[in-house]
Design brief:
The complex is a heterodimer of chains A (339) and B (118). In chain A, strand 5, helix 3 and strand 6 form a beta-alpha-beta unit. Chain A is 35% helix and 23% strand. With 339 residues, chain A is of the alpha/beta class. The mean pLDDT of chain A is 94. Chain B has 118 residues and is mainly alpha-helical. In chain B, helix 2 crosses helix 5 and helix 5 runs antiparallel to helix 6. Classes of the chains: A alpha/beta (339), B mainly alpha (118).
Chain lengths: 339, 118
């Protein structure tokens, strides 16, 4: 069983292995610089379904099925499905769990869901409470617009600091099975941080302090410098939020500029239509599973810190003038250390 | 020349909307309501009439033009049927616009489904 290290970090005794992982993305993501990395892509944002919500559910279902298949397991082998998404009552995940028939723990961590589910999944496996778990999440541009801003019918334009919710899903199979796999070494659950930003079109700026705090806490807890990791990966800070992260961290005496990568900035490349970059649960999930984990297996990264960031506001709280509480969880993944 | 002035006046009104969208955190719904009420207030103060004379459709098609029609209708109602006309005149004056919005909105919703941008 794992042990606590430092102030907030958990280190796993038998680091759970990442047996399989998957990514499913839509057209804009497929046309981005990492388009060739993803397992499944689709052209039409409805993906043959009647509503965007059904399309998102299909994405997450395909992600879960593909991850289980790639891990060489069967759905019946999985002890717990841990998932969440951005919609009211996390319906995408709940309906996927209905279809899969696997015991389900639903999470709401907004765009931090991939790292939140990995954190809880790794604890379950290392604690001996589950042999194999699946961690899954999804987001869809059109469903998120309806949920957080306006339905597409209204045709409202975006502001310059806005980010584009990624149409993407990802799933990861964590397992107690030994072998040469990327494994989750340690994790740092984040504190909810609120710097008083209330502009919902500037989420990157709101989330940057949460990312900075979790990253610095993690590094202090394990007693390492940022260069210990080949990449410190934030979820969806975007162009503006990433600049703020580097600035906040340097004010606190940490230079992250050499190792920091942001999935939101990477996903669409220089596509101006996407404003400040990608966001949403699927943004970090698809980049982790489509790019970073395969690169680890290829040997190009040995050690990464995956820090998906989430904004925990609701449309109602935002309209009532509340500021945006934000969170970031850090997951340290290392290649081949627990054979 | 008429077309040019329509274009300039209409464009300037839309520019105000774009600045509000880009520079403030106002929601689109608030901006729409602001435009209608601004049209009413400007008309009541006699400031919008010159814009309509100069810009024609450029001043009447944007939402401030809807406010203009509301205020004009209210004035007309007062002249025709006294104070009660202030309440009924506005809707009378804009009845064609409202009915057209409902009918065409309904028809378009029947024919098309929204899609994500290409």
């Amino acid at each position: 069983m794992g042990a606590r290290v430092g102030e907030k970090t958990v280190r796993f005794d038998m680091p759970p292995n990442i047996l399989g992982f998957s990514s499913v993305v839509g057209k804009d993501e497929k046309n981005g610089p990492y388009g060739a990395c993803f397992d499944i892509t689709f052209e039409d944002s409805l993906w043959g379904e009647k509503t965007y919500e059904l399309a998102e559910r299909k994405m997450q279902l395909k992600a879960v099925e593909t991850a289980i298949e790639k891990s060489g397991l069967k759905a019946g082998d999985i002890h717990i499905l841990i998932g969440g998404d951005l919609l009211n009552q996390i319906i995408s995940s709940g309906f996927v769990a209905r279809q899969m028939g696997i015991p389900f723990i639903g999470l709401y961590g907004a765009c931090s869901t991939m790292s939140e589910s990995l954190l809880i999944g790794a604890m379950s496996v290392d604690g001996g409470f589950a042999e194999h778990v699946v961690c899954a999440t999804s987001s869809h541009f059109a469903t998120a617009e309806r949920q957080f801003r306006n339905p597409l019918e209204l045709g409202t334009p975006k502001t310059p600091t806005a980010q584009n919710t990624a149409t993407a899903a990802g799933a990861v199979v964590l397992s107690a099975q030994r072998g040469q796999y990327p494994s989750v070494i340690s994790a740092t659950p984040g504190r909810v941080v609120d710097f008083g930003i209330n502009d919902v079109n500037n989420m990157g700026a709101a989330m940057a302090p949460a990312a900075a705090e979790t990253i610095i806490t993690h590094l202090e807890d394990i007693g390492q410098r940022p260069e210990y990791y080949d990449a410190i990966i934030t979820g969806d800070l975007g162009i503006f939020g990433s600049k703020l992260l580097i600035k906040y961290a340097s004010e606190l005496g940490w230079d992250l500029s050499g190792v920091h990568r942001d999935c939101g900035m990477m996903l669409y490349g220089d596509n101006e239509k996407m404003h400040c970059g990608g966001s949403g649960c699927g943004c970090s999930a698809s980049m982790l599973n489509g790019f970073f984990l395969p690169e680890m297996i290829k040997g190009n990264f040995k050690r990464i810190l995956f820090v998906a960031t989430g904004a925990l506001h609701s449309p109602t709280s935002a309209l009532q003038g509340e500021t945006i509480p934000c969170i970031a969880h850090a997951i340290a993944i290392e290649m081949g250390c627990s054979i | 020349m008429n077309y040019l002035w329509d274009f300039i006046i209409g464009g300037l009104i839309c520019l105000v909307g774009q600045i509000l969208l880009s520079k403030t955190s106002m929601t689109p719904a608030r901006i729409l309501v602001l435009f209608v009420t601004a049209g009413v207030v400007l008309t009541a103060l006699g400031l919008y009439e010159p814009l309509v004379k100069l810009g024609g459709a450029g001043a009447q098609v944007p939402l401030t033009g809807f406010g203009y029609a509301l205020a004009k209708g209210a004035f007309k109602g007062v002249n025709e049927s006294g104070l009660l006309g202030a309440l009924s005149g506005g809707v009378k004056g804009t009845a064609a616009g409202i009915a057209a919005a409902v009918i065409f909105g309904y028809l378009i919703a029947l024919i098309f489904t929204p899609k994500t941008k290409k």
